[in-house]
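Handout, section B. The chain below has 130 residues.
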Amino acid sequence: MSDPENFDYEITLQNGTGEAVLAKHDFLYALRAGTVTLTIKALDGSNLSASRTFTLVEPAVSAEQALRNAIANGESSYVLSGNITLTQDLVIPNGMLLLVGTMAQDVPSVITVPQGVTVEKTTARYAFWV
């Protein structure tokens, strides 16, 4: 029997109708609603494995709305969780640190600013870390 403290395993992810990625520390990061299947296989020669299908659902609040809520609530920093395509102008207030890109998480994040939409920061200090 394997020592639980030193258990070696392999995790695979199969995207179905949904989409997700495995981030650092085997954290499942959902990208699109639908189904995904995780399989965990023991690497101790026992050939033991287990699979589970998960249904990912749309969050009650979009990533864009969560960012806007953080700004409205006066939060001093915010880590972007997922990709955002802005639907209206965004003003990042003085002193707020907005972390975007691969430095923000193990999963890259992107803010897409469509034509006609602007992003403005109200300070000369760094607002984005990309």
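Note. Residues 63-72 form the longest helix (10 residues). Compare this with the example in section A.
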